[in-house]
């Protein structure tokens, strides 16, 4: 049971880790696309400024500024492209794929996330804590280990009691050459008792004390894990609220930037 729970926990963590890495790659891919678009726009702007400078409508300083912006953009583009390539290789290595495997990412997945939006979790921290305390597999295993330790105490305590063994033995032999001829005088038997009093029980006593200590330690492990789960739930809930607020702010910032780009394009 413990192994199954551990595997299921690993499976869930692995799936979450894969999704986290994948969305990180998609975010980097989107950054590469933005830098490429920005670089192309700066190339057009530099060519436009050069044409205006030839016509005497712009100074050489303005042209040089446009060229410098283009070079900075080109440098950023190279950096993000290399960073994306390195992250993609790391993702292949994480999945156990050959590094030279051709992996294509579906960039539309980010569009799907944008369309879906973010929904706030309408649950109180106490409700989430109760769900976590009931569903966390590692906590269930920790509680079961405490029950295991309590059973070991019972076993160790049983070893401290007196032991009384009853021994009985009987043998009946037939006459020589007559296998079916039995005589009562040939019947022999023994009956005995072995009594082991709880006098010399030092090793058993030590095991009993160790079992009691193990129970206390297992109980502390349960309490400690429950407290850490409560803290983690509250921290995740606070971080979720902060992330949601940041998401709404950034969404408004993106909308403002889109309007500014549209006005800039119309003014050209």
- Helix and strand sequence: HHHHHEEH
- Poorly predicted regions: none
- Measured as a percent range, the helix fraction is over 70%
Percentage of residues in DSSP E strands: 5-15%
Task: Give me the count of strands.
Answer: 2
Looking at this protein, list some descriptive labels.
2 strands, 12% strand, 268 residues, mainly alpha, two-stranded antiparallel ribbon, 6 helices
Overall description:
The chain has 268 residues and is mainly α. The protein is built from six helices and two strands; from the N terminus they run αααααββα. The chain has a two-stranded antiparallel sheet. A hairpin with a 2-residue loop joins β1 (163-175) and β2 (178-196). α1 packs antiparallel against α2, α4 packs across α6 and α5 packs antiparallel against α6. The longest helix is centred in the last third of the chain and has 66 residues, at 202-267. It is elongated, with a radius of gyration of 39 Å. The relative contact order is 0.08.
Kindly summarize this structure in a few lines:
With about 270 residues, this protein is mainly α. It has helices spanning about 1-55, 60-95, 110-115, 125-135, 135-160, 200-265, and strands spanning about 165-175, 180-195.
List the helices and strands and how they pair.
Elements: H1 2-54, H2 60-95, H3 108-116, H4 125-135, H5 137-158, E1 163-175, E2 178-196, H6 202-267
Antiparallel strand pairs: 1-2
């Amino acid at each position: 049971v413990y192994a199954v729970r551990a595997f299921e926990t690993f499976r869930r963590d692995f799936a979450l880790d894969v999704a986290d890495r994948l969305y990180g790659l998609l975010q980097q891919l989107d950054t590469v696309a933005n830098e490429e678009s920005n670089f192309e726009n700066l190339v057009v702007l530099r060519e436009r400024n050069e044409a205006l400078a030839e016509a005497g409508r712009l100074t050489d300083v303005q042209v040089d500024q446009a060229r410098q912006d283009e070079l900075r953009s080109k440098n950023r583009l190279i950096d993000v492209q290399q960073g994306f390539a390195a992250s993609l290789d790391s993702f292949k290595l994480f999945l156990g794929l050959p590094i030279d495997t051709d992996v294509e990412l579906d960039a539309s997945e980010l569009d799907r996330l944008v369309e879906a939006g973010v929904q706030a979790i309408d649950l109180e921290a106490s409700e989430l804590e109760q769900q976590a305390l009931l569903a966390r597999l590692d906590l269930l295993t920790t509680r079961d280990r405490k029950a295991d330790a309590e059973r070991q105490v019972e076993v160790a305590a049983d070893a401290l009691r007196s032991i009384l063994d009853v021994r009985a033995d009987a043998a009946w032999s037939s006459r020589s050459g007559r296998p079916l001829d039995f005589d009562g005088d040939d019947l022999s038997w023994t009956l005995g008792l072995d009594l082991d009093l709880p006098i010399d029980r030092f090793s058993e006593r030590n095991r009993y004390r160790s079992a009691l200590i193990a129970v206390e330690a297992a109980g502390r492990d349960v309490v400690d894990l429950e407290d850490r789960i409560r803290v983690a739930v509250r921290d995740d809930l606070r971080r979720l609220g902060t992330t949601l607020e940041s998401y709404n702010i950034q969404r408004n910032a993106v909308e403002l930037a889109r309007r500014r780009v549209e006005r800039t394009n119309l003014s050209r």
